[in-house]
């Protein structure tokens, strides 16, 4: 093992790293991060293991692989740095430094490759007319394993002699050696910047931009009619999943890009450009990605929220209509529909309302047994067809809705204005 002892002689268990009033708040922050990250990631993994239906999608398999790495990183990596910061000294010897660096580096590489795989998967799903079987589930498991092995390959290279691991910043964490200018270290740093950061980021950006453009084009040319309700529902689902993936990727890049820029400057421009404390803060901030991934996924995924004890039945609480409909409610609905003409999409606004009502009722009927009354369903179909096949303005259609639909349907027109469906 090519172990560097350059800082170990200076950073011992008896020497204080920096003033404690600076380091301890960072350590307490990491402890909070450790509690949230470990518990949240563990619960999501439990949900994936407990409910087989969540493992029927290749995207969910890739996200599960991402959450698994985040859980291991939060459980084993964060406590070492947190204890060192609170104690104002590194307490785990150089061997502990190497182990902490291996865990952190493996988690970072695995996250990048998992996000790259998720982006590729979403690109194929969206561009192939929302065919969710583009990548088979068993192939997704194999692909996740390959991503782990590739991350492990880059992680073990410093252990066997290509570069090495060393203390960074104030000495409360460890990473790949960045400062040394030898050919051994510089060649490794350049290689990982290309194959672990640059190429995956390019793939992630290109695939997600392409998927986003496909969704926008499909949205403009797809008519929202009940004859294509299944295709439209699938489109809405895929759009929401794609946006969720984009948020997860954005959170990861936001957490890791400052650290990547700092490491690049230290490796190739000026090793002494950052003070020790400034070299530590980006490393600590990068660890927040271990929590952000799962937090964003829970906030954006209704299926997962339904299994969380504090979010159970959240969607149905938003969409219950137990209050009494009066003239004020109808007037508010009429006013909102009237001003929807400013959107310059004649017939489209009300079609969204009617279609969303029917889509929700179909879904709600399957889960809670509440069916939409046949009279309202038939009338909704007639109004929808009139808007699509005629030149009636949105205002005329809404007038017709308010005149003929029962209070039951008007309530839904009002309430769906406040629901951010996909």
Topology:
Blueprint lengths: L19 H31 L7 H19 L1 H10 L5 H35 L9 H24 L4 E4 L4 E4 L6 H39 L7 H40 L7 H11 L2 H12 L1 H6 L6 H5 L8 H13 L8 H21 L5 H16 L4 H11 L2 H9 L7
Antiparallel strand pairs: 1-2
Helix pairs in contact: 1-2, 1-3, 1-9, 2-4, 2-5, 2-9, 4-5, 4-6, 4-7, 6-7, 7-8, 7-9, 12-15, 12-16, 13-14, 14-15
Strand count, sense and closure of the main sheet?
Answer: 2 strands, antiparallel
Q: How does the overall form come out from the CA principal axes? A: globular
Question: What's the architecture of the largest domain, going by CATH?
Answer: Up-down Bundle
DSSP summary, beta strand count: 2
Task: Give me the CATH fold name of the largest domain.
Answer: Rhopdopsin 7-helix transmembrane proteins
Structural class: mainly alpha
Mean pLDDT: 70
CA-CA gap between termini? 52 Å
Describe the model:
This protein has 422 residues and is mainly alpha-helical. The protein folds into two domains: 20-312, Rhodopsin 7-helix transmembrane proteins (Rhopdopsin 7-helix transmembrane proteins); 317-418, no CATH class. It is built from 16 helices and two strands. Strands 1-2 form a two-stranded antiparallel ribbon. Helix 6 runs antiparallel to helix 7 (229-268) and helix 7 (229-268) packs antiparallel against helix 8. The chain starts with 19 loop residues before the first helix and ends in a 7-residue tail after the last helix. Residues 1-15, 223-228, 312-373, 388-395 and 402-422 have low confidence and may be disordered.
């Amino acid at each position: 093992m090519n172990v560097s002892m350059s800082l170990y002689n200076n950073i011992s268990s008896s020497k204080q790293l920096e003033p404690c009033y600076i380091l301890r708040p960072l350590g307490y922050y990491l402890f909070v991060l450790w509690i949230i990250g470990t518990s949240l990631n563990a619960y999501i993994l439990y949900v994936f293991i407990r409910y087989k239906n969540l493992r029927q999608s290749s995207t969910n398999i890739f996200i599960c692989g991402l959450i698994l790495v985040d859980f291991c990183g939060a459980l084993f990596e964060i406590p070492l740095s947190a204890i060192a910061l609170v104690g104002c000294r590194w307490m785990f010897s150089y061997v502990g430094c190497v182990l902490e660096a291996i865990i952190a580096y493996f988690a970072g590489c695995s996250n990048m490759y998992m996000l790259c795989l998720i982006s590729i998967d979403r690109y194929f799903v969206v561009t192939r007319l929302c065919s969710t079987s583009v990548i088979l589930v068993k192939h997704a498991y194999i692909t996740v394993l390959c991503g782990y092995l590739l991350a492990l390959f880059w992680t073990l290279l410093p252990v066997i002699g290509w570069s090495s691991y060393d203390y960074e910043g104030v000495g409360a964490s460890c990473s790949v050696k960045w400062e040394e200018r030898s050919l051994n270290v510089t060649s490794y740093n350049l290689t990982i910047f290309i194959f672990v950061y640059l190429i995956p980021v390019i793939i992630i950006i290109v695939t997600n931009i392409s998927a986003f453009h496909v969704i926008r084009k499909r949205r403009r040319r797809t008519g929202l009619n009940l004859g294509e309700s299944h295709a439209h529902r699938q489109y809405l689902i895929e759009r929401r999943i794609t946006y969720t993936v984009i948020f997860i990727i954005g959170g990861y890049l936001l957490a890791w890009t400052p650290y990547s820029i700092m490491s690049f400057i230290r490796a190739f421009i000026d090793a002494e450009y950052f003070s020790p404390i400034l070299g530590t803060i980006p490393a600590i901030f990068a660890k927040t990605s271990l929590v952000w991934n799962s937090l964003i996924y829970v906030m954006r995924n209704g299926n997962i929220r339904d299994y969380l004890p504090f979010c159970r039945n959240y969607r149905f609480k938003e969409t219950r209509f137990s209050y009494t409909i009066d003239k004020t409610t109808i007037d508010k609905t009429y006013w909102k529909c009237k001003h929807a003409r400013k959107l310059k999409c004649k017939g489209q606004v009300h079609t969204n309302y009617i279609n969303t009502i029917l889509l929700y009722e179909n879904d709600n009927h399957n889960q809670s047994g509440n069916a939409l009354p046949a009279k309202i369903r038939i009338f909704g179909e007639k109004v929808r067809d009139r808007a699509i096949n005629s030149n009636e303005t949105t205002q005329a259609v809404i007038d017709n809705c308010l005149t003929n639909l029962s209070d039951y349907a008007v309530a839904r027109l009002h309430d769906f204005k406040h629901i951010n469906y996909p």
